[in-house]
Amino acid sequence: MSGVTPNSPHGLYLNSxxxxxxxxxxxxxxxxxxxxxxxxxxxxSDQNLKQLPFAGKVVLLSGDFRQTLPVVPHAGxxxxxxxxxxxxxxxxxxxxxxxxxxxxxxxxxxxFANFLxxxxxxxxxxxxxxxPILPERLLGIGSPIDFIYPDVExxxxxxxxxxxxxxxxxxxDCDIINNDVLSTIQGEIKVYDSVDTLLADNMDAQLExxxxxxxxxxxxxxxxxxxxxxxGAVVLLIRNLNTAKGLINGTRLQVARLxxxxxxxxxxxxTSEGEQIFIPRIKMCPSETNLPFKMQRxxxxxxxxxxxxxxxxxxxxxxxxxxxxxxxxxxHGQLYVALSxxxxxxxxxVFINETGNQxxxxxxxxxxSNVVFEEVLLD
Length: 379
Description:
The protein has helices spanning 9-16, 30-43, 77-82, 110-121, 144-148, 152-158, 171-184, 203-208, 211-216, 310-313, 334-339, 374-377, and strands at residues 19-22, 58-61, 133-134, 164-168, 190-193, 195-198, 226-229, 234-237, 252-258, 262-267, 276-280, 282-284, 295-299, 302-304, 307-309, 320-325, 348-352, 359-360, 366-367. By secondary structure, it is α+β, with helices and mostly antiparallel strands.
């Protein structure tokens, strides 16, 4: 249920809206759309409008179901698909309009655009044991860091660093790359430690979870206890701070100055690109966790972003990207999202560790897993 009431400022504002836009709809859980629909019906005072989806509001849902689907921890294919919008009772009421041109790729890159569709539709040629074959021109040689950041200091000076990133499936892979790149930047590292608190009134529970244990907890969506930064480092905002200025979850920033209680950053993406802003420490609680307790972390809502996870990269546009696959992708749409972040074949390279599911073929091409839930692509 939504906590917004009809007479609250938020309720009055939403009720006056003429158009609601929800982006990246493929990642939005089905129950979230149900809550939004119920909210607008509750806000409306017109009994006839209450009978209509979203109380008759014009709602524009945009997204690509070839991209990643809602994240359901420890769930299999069936549960993930069930949590997709296409299984919501509202889906038949939606008027579908299909886009026909890839606006991210460079002009004249029709071959690349068609290749991306083949990846998204899982229609690439396959090896004899059933793995998709990717062209030799995409295979990266050496290190993804050498391909993306051959001279990281020069990338920082020219501002080109905002168009570069390394993508990997897991946070652990990104952490290793981020620390390696950070070590190549000149200057002194400043470490910001979080203040972690157990949210429990029971004193015994607090004694059972000492501060040192809370500091060691690493959960997706929370910043690290030790946040290591340098001037010039690229970071990712992981909380909505000011939606009016475009300072939302997923905005990339560059560290300009390091203060004791704030981090001064330059905005690299979004509507406030180029502006200098101050990031404060904020209190954050993990929304979904398997921990048997609730905790709160006071820390800057920032993560290093020389490398980022493929799921976190959804929505980013890059001129040059390296896809690092120590192991193959593991869920629907990840390979498609990773390959479609840049604008051409020349700006994309895939670096693989050869395993049973991915290897370099004798002709120079290579194979890797491509997870696609075909039932989601059906109209």
